[in-house]
Amino acid sequence: MRTPKSTYRLQIRSEFDLRAAAAVVPYLRDLGVDWVYLSPVLTAEQGSGHGYDVTDPTAVDPERGGRDAFVALSDAAHAAGLGVLVDIVPNHLGVQTPGQNPWWSALLKGGQDSPYAEAFDVDWDAAGGKIRLPVLGDGDDELAALELDGGELRYYDHRFPIADGSYETGDTAQAVHARQHYELVNWRRADSELNYRRFFGVNTLAGLRVEVPRVFDESHSEIRSWFEESLVDGLRIDHPDGLADPAGYLDRLRELTGGAYVLVEKILEPGETLPAGWATEGTTGYDALADIDRLFVDPAGQATLERVAPAEDFHSMIHGTKRGIADGILRSEVLRLTRLVPADAGLDPEDAADAIAELLACFPVYRSYLPGGAGYLDDAVVAAQVHRPDLAATLTTLHGLLNPYLADPDATLTELATRFQQTSGMVMAKGVEDTAFYRYNRLTSLNEVGADPSIFSINRVDMHNRLLRRQRDNPLSMTALSTHDTKRSEDTRARISVLSEMADDWATVLGQLDGAAPLGDPAFSSLLWQAMIGAWPLSRDRAHAYVEKASREADSSTHWTAPNEAFEDRMHSAVDAAFDTPAVTTLVTTLVEKIKGYGWSNSLSAKLLQLTMPGVPDVYQGSEFWEDSLVDPDNRRPVDFEERKQALVNLAFGALPAIDESAVAKLLVVSRALKLRRDRPELFAGYTAVTTTGEAAEHIFAFDRGGALTLLTRLPLGLERRGGWQDTAVILPEGKYSCAITGASFSGGPVPAGTIFETYPVALLVREDAS
Predict the structure, then answer these.
(1) Using CA atoms, how far apart are residues 38 and 8, in angstroms rounded to an integer?
(2) In this structure, what are the phi and psi dihedrals at residue 713, rounded to the nearest 5 degrees?
(3) What are phi and psi for residue 268, nearest 5 degrees?
(4) Whose CB has fewer CB within 10 Å in the chain, the N or C terminal residue?
């Protein structure tokens, strides 16, 4: 199996298609990248900017360049010595426009007799043998707007196929609609009455049943050809938790790929590990990101930050937000589970639905994989009984139904048990990532996918322990700092984390900002101003788009389905004040000027750590320069590769760039680290902590990978306040060393930290006699 030493993620879309990606391959090779890593490339909804709404899994998307361009990209990468990793989406298909999805269109036209009926996860009995499509508006008689047009039903911009023989001359559109295998219903009914499985709460992404052999084969036919033709070297699997049988799916995929490198987008809660036996090399790196961020957070700031951004205990909060999701946008999933409870279980349906929703709210991880992970279900039952003692007996009965192995070790999973596992991850993602992460705002650099914001910081000893375990258990798992899904990109978070080192000053500034532009929501005010300061300077449009999305995701002072105009007016006025009101602008820019240098120090240190620690580092497109994005779609903006290419050429002349807005210093660190990992992999085969001594020893994090030594600065503001490095030293192992970043030379033994970090807050030392 070929495995990558590093990857570089490219977002493929019509504006930057596969031919454009092929054109940047020489730059990626010169940067030091080992594999190019592509976002989904199968045919998606026309105009899709992300590609996760695949409409035809049997072909490469023409809008993204088509198959010929895909082959050209693969050929270019392989000719340059790079591997190719591609993101695939087995859990769902895009169904926003039925005419673009031949499988969904056939389902709507043929119903249960359609050749694709088994491909989609539809509960036909729940709606009298029809599929409910939540597209109608709020008018009294929206079906009156239906028209017959070209052999289809049309509702404004929506078009739907009609079943053979369901139209007779003179029929009204409403009469034809009544004969279809689908029923158009009000969009608000989706939350409780939808009868097809979705991706989370997205009505336009319909769940796919890849556990059915024929569906797997047909939906992976194009992917299979990639390996038969040696076009691709590995795969990234989107959202495996949504599948009925993730382990079985990965086994089939390993067979299809011939044993290629496979990563899964699996979010692990603190202390959780990948299920044993999964045919995968690891995760996509959210777990690494969470650890790295916390190394650069000062625990001394915690109490003050909590005081200025009041919130309930995080785990109490997420119980409430998850329960809100189970009772709200995913109520239809809870009711489907309730319908699967056997009649002879003797449970009242309302009590059963209540108890299932409570179990989902109490579930401690995204999902279990029974019989593995049964302890998580056990814990959820106990927690649910504590929260709802009135449901204790119902919960006990459900426990046995949701885990049939309790009564019979040789049991097989029922549909109820399987579907509960598919549902728990949806509730976690929507209740935690997409709600609580916008409410719990003491330090928003901690609110990232795969992280637990209640864990404030990690000390050096704990970080070494985690990296040693990663080297031992998951050396081929990906590490990441920015992705297409991060709520805030790596350098935005690096700057925000500085606030933990100056919590009292931040409290004063936040109070002044909130006084000048009051929102009436202290928690969200903290989020808004941290975002503005973390990403400043940013455009007005970017700022307005971000706060609108963030506030509605928080679902506290305003909501997606019922915007609070008064609150949102105040919120947008606050954003405008940052640009238009001199006093507010001064508060923002003065604080940014004060902390940006420390933020850059954190950025370089976090990046070098990610690039050299155990695991396979991924560089998200463009993040070899400062990456100041906020949540999607902000983090999917176009990248100026020509600017980066020219800057990389200039670095070849040997000058050491200053750490400034140009971001060339980050490019230097990234390129030198990537090249060393690619060209000297033997230097990265182990992991040993490196000793530091002296007054400021805690401000250094250092390790030896087996000939390549990473040394970095942490908590730089605190370091300056205590008077700098003073007598602090790094005890280098015996030998002679040169820095891959600056070229400086060192000998083994104690070396003053001030000497090592004279030019940059990071160093990457190479032992000259290393084999």
Answers:
(1) 8
(2) -95, 140
(3) -105, 130
(4) C
Q: pLDDT tens-digit profile of 331-361?
A: 999 999 999 999 999 999 999 999 999 999 9
Residue pLDDT, tens place only, 668-685: 999 999 999 999 999 999
Alpha-carbon torsion, ordered 425, 430, 432, 433, to 10 deg: 100
The strand pair at 616-620 and 7-10 is best described as parallel
Q: What is the C-alpha separation between 274 and 464, in angstroms, rounded? A: 20
Phi-psi domain of 440 (left: phi exceeds 0; alpha: psi -120 through 50; beta: other):
beta
Helix (H, G, I), strand (E, B) or coil at 428: helix
Q: What is the pLDDT of residue 356?
A: 98
The list of the chain residues with pLDDT below 70 reads: 770-771
Write down the pLDDT at residue 519: 95
CB 33 within 8 A of CB 16: no
- Predicted local distance difference test score (pLDDT) of residue 771: 55
Cα angle for residues 643, 738, 770 (degrees, 5° grid): 115
Which tokens go with 568?
Answer: 């949102």
Tell me, what's the pLDDT at 770?
A: 66
Q: Are strands 202-207 and 92-94 parallel, antiparallel or unpaired?
A: antiparallel
Beta-sheet pairing, 198-199 with 42-44 = unpaired
Q: Which residues pair with 637 in a beta bridge?
A: none
Predicted local confidence at residue 418, as pLDDT = 97
Rounded-to-integer distance, Cα 644 and Cα 91, Å: 36
Across 254-291, b (16+ Cβ under 10 Å) vs e yields bebbeebbbbbbbbebeeeebbeebbbbbbbbbbbbbb
pLDDT at 350: 97
- Strands lying side by side in the sheet with 152-155: 147-149, 152-155, 158-161
pTM comes to: 0.97
Q: Residue 523 contacts by C-beta under 8 Å, 6 or more apart in sequence? A: 309, 310, 311, 439, 440, 441, 554, 556
**CA–CA separation, 71 vs 509, rounded Å?**
54
